[in-house]
Design brief:
Elements lengths: L5 H6 L14 H6 L5 E5 L2 E4 L3 E5 L6 H10 L3 E2 L6 E2 L4 E5 L10 H13 L3 E3 L3 H10 L10 H9 L3 H16 L4 E4 L11 E4 L12 H10 L27 E4 L10 E2 L2 E3 L9 E7 L3 E6 L40 H5 L1 H10 L1 H10 L3 E7 L5 E7 L18 E3 L4 E4 L12 H12 L14 E8 L2 E6 L2 E2 L11 H12 L6 H4 L2 E8 L14 E9 L6 E2 L2 H9 L22
Parallel strand pairs: 2-8, 3-6, 6-7, 9-10, 10-12
Antiparallel strand pairs: 1-2, 3-13, 4-5, 8-9, 11-12, 13-14, 15-16, 16-17, 17-18, 19-20, 19-22, 20-21, 22-23, 23-24
The protein binds manganese (II) ion (MN).
Manganese (II) ion (MN) binds next to loops.
Length: 574
Amino acid sequence: ILDEPWDAIGRVGWVPPSQGGPKLEFEVLRAWSPPRITRPTASSAQLMVPGLDIIGDVHGCSTELDALLAQLGWSREGQSGHWSHPEDRMVVFVGDLTDRGPDSIGVLLRAVTMVDQGQALLVRGNHDDKLLRWLQGRSVELKHGLETTVAEFEDLTHDQRKALTQTATTLIANSPLWATWHAPQGLIGDPELVIAHAAWSPDVPRWPLGRARAYCLFGPTTSTPSPDGLPQRLDWRQRYPTRGPSCVFGHSPFQGPVQWYRNTLALDTACVFGHRLSALRWPERDVVQVDARAPYAEPRRPLEPTPPYVLEPMEETPMNDTDANLQLGPDAAFELRLDRLLESLHRQPEAILSRIDGDAMLLKREGVTPHGQTMVIVNASKSLFTPQHTHQLYAKGLVYTREPWRPVSIPFLKIYNLGERDDTRALAVELSRQEGVTAHFNDKLDGTMVQSCCIASQVVLTTRGTFDLADPATSGFDYLGEARRLLHTQSPGALDPDQVQGRTLLWELIHPESRLVTDYGDRKALILTGAVDHRDREPRYVTRSELEALARSPGGCGKRPKSPREPHPSPGSS
Ligand code: MN
């Protein structure tokens, strides 16, 4: 208020003393200072400090922490006095203060003091979270480093232990899952920076607490563990929006240089494993580091030059058709959302298509367009009944080019035969509970799935892992020829390139020669069951009403049968 021009204050109805208004109590105004941290939600904190010193996973390395704080310009009056910095700054710990290192209690005491004095914020890490549960007397396994912190607690006197249990519990229980920072002039709108322990996404604030918590503390992982039994961390950074806030995180130790990648910065430079403790000065973007004095622990897996993320494991895992191989982790339903998969295929076509291309469990067939371009269509081998790796979810029926890696026709995603295994029901329920998700499960009778799309100005039909462009089938029923003949009769518009351009249409072929379980007599039909629209840059599934409109349009595909359920839908067809 003191900095406001008088006329601005006058406009809001306040009369200055020079014009007869009341005399201001200036002392009171000067004593008031804005809060440095607010808590807009229970899960998040908003930092309102001009500068931050963000510190990576400390894991009990108090000597290195002291050296780093000193290098950042922080000093302390005596052993337990006030921490201060010549500038208006705040320390933000990305989480994991304790475990594995030599002096977890020393690190906790420093963090408690700095946070109490309003000079620091702890963003909660998975190790902090587990320590909190131990401090609260809940049952936790004393491993992955927690045993070292517990041993330190056990060496304390009764009174020391009681006091530290209380302060550390308060510290961690009040730590947010993520913190945001706005430039001093930009408090309205999106933050410019987010700090979270393992991962973050602009969707996190809209998620239920359980999902947000799992994502921030552990990050997304693959549904199958790696051969060493550890969860494989998904590279969430690959799909982190470059226009979103910058994101700083820890959690995944690595040995290489600290580098920005897609607007994200990893800060856990493996101090406890003998590498370095790192800090980021924000908004200056300077990285400050101190070397570890010694390796204090052995990493569970070899350290890598960058955070050890994988898109998905490429190793062949043993096939077991009786097991549900794709285990449903906390993020499974989210990761399996069709819109999510389409989005990641759109964002990282090369990463996904090259994995599909190199996967021996996926059968590929090539064809050549009239313009001489090679197309590849994918099908799954019989032994791949249930997808085991994320990229396999995209694969069935996908048509792509190799150079450049580009999807040409995007099929519906073949996840499971719904309801065939218990876990698919759980998945369907979980999917239907997802915010923003409307689930439609298409009726399929007992036919064969056929796709049509436009490739090089030609309508191409695909089915059973082959397409019109490939060599004609040498034996058996000519599915594609018959599908084409049926389209000619029932909906010729669907063979018009102008009508089909930019869409993948999914049909079910009912034919006496293509009889799997149910006998439909002599009935022959192609039934439109869905469509993907990729005319815009972002591909999307069309809604039910759009599909119905499409079916009635000149490019559409005729009518649905009057009684689609006769005689019985076969279990487990698709
Ligand atoms: Mn850590």
